[in-house]
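User: I'll paste a sequence; please echo it back and then give the predicted structure.

Assistant: Echoing your sequence first, then the prediction.
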Amino acid sequence: MKDKIKIKELVRQYYYERFGNQHFRPGVDWVPVSGKAFGPEELEALVECALDFWLTAGPYAKQFEEKLANILKVPRVCLTNSGSSANLLCISALCSNAMGDKKLKPGDEVITSAVGFPTTLNPILQNGLTAVLVDIELGTYNPRPEAIEEAITEKTRAVILAHTLGNPFDAQAIRALCDKHGLFLIEDACDALGAKFNGRPVGSWGDLASFSFYPAHHITTGEGGAVACSSVQWARIIESLRDWGRHCWCEPGHDNTCGRRYNWKFPGLPEGYDHKYVYSEVGYNLKMTDLQAAIGLVQLERLDSFAAIRQRNFKALHELFSKYEDWFILPCNVKGAEPSWFGYPVTIKPNAPFARIELLKYLEEKRIGTRLIFGGNLTRQPAYQGHPLVRVVGPLTASDIVLNSSFWLGVCQAIDGVKLRYMLESIMDWLEEY
């Protein structure tokens, strides 16, 4: 134990020597569009976990799941190795044999947004389902409930939507719409940890919800993600799909949790076949490690302070761009939405005296990071052009505008006051030229 204490002291000392004296050099160092922020506590937790040499999911992962479930106000959370895997598990769960008569099958339709990150859309196609894409609303960058309802047919079985850039879609209206038509709702909340709708956390409105802890996101475990489950029954399906498809629910390092390890009977298997090797799903191995979870537990403690920095940075950018509303469509949210901003999105209007590429090149020269709104109109991307399982409802007018004229700036916790001032001054210098 004394050795552990000494190691912990040395780790803290190393943190301050390696990471503690970094000074921003304007025009030389990047103002990141996204990025991790951490203190000595994350390194200490990581090293302590490594000293225990528990390399798979273990006690830290269990604590992380319980703590995140409490924050999200859901019955269960299942950790995964990425947010993309979380989306894959959510859609795959709808296709599980455990769903009985409610199981989705090829030919069934799932409605989603035409604008977004591909891994919201991909699991629909990967499971042989038909993706029905609808247009978004400029400013919120989310589909309106009316657009979702117009896309519903007798084949529609589910809706999966992202809270774009941390800006919640109208969760209450879309939840009611799904209930009215008997549809499953999946929230892609990968970019929205900490956001709320009508005071209720995003991730708690859907049957299932995905989260990402990649370094770009609100908290990080390096690689990593989670599925929030609205019931224990959903959690059982997600855990099975995540853990090789096994029917057994023993935690790693434990056996015979059910007390019936050799007393089960499954059609096609010898009676008493070892429950640890019974597979009821066509599953994956998408687990998080305890090393990652140890970092995540500390990061969760920082969530509120990280969100406050993001709000400060968003507000400062909003005040600046509000002076130039003739040239930009500014971000907005629907009534009831409490965003936890992932970035500051803007759309350049046709009458602006400059093109997007000119502004982005200028910001790159100034070492200020920018990003497009992911894939823009995904139907224009090579992977989806002419895809037999993609159907479009209505003109994707706003989605095309996003493709050609939108981008976002960073508001992440890695942007301190010095970086923020440099970013604001650089943007203002450019705009004042016109």
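The first strand starts at residue 76 and ends at 80. The two ends are 65 Å apart (CA to CA).
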